[in-house]
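Sat 14:20. Reprocessing the chain from the morning session after the first attempt stalled halfway. Input below, unchanged.
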Amino acid sequence: MDNLTPEQRKKNMQAIKASDTKAEILLAKSLFRKGFRYRKNNKSVFGKPDLTFKKIKLAIFIDGEFWHGKDWEIKKENIKSNRQYWIPKIERNISRDKTVNSELIKEGWTVMRFWAKEIEKNTEFYSAQIESKINELKTLKN
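Finished this time. Tokens:
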């Protein structure tokens, strides 16, 4: 049973962003300040990663904890309303994420996935991790 009216639920769901979330913007700006250039939500790359560095084949995903099932086995027990909808939906998202990862790896991409809240808490740490991976991939490419 939903605690919100259909109108309230619709308004809430419409406000959820698929791209340009706070975590994505923080990370992208941090990388841009360091001089890195990337494509955002590149449709030509399988899975439409949040950030791509095409020359070195690096795909970065910033996943929302709820939508992508962080600590899923524990958290799915906390879903109280509309379980028959949310549990299969999030499990499909988790499965899709695995498929996207394996397909990109088969195509020679390096895939990095981060949780949005972790990026919001410590953007510079994750930016440094990506910088390190970029430098490593550039070295391997040459």
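The chain has a mean pLDDT of 89.
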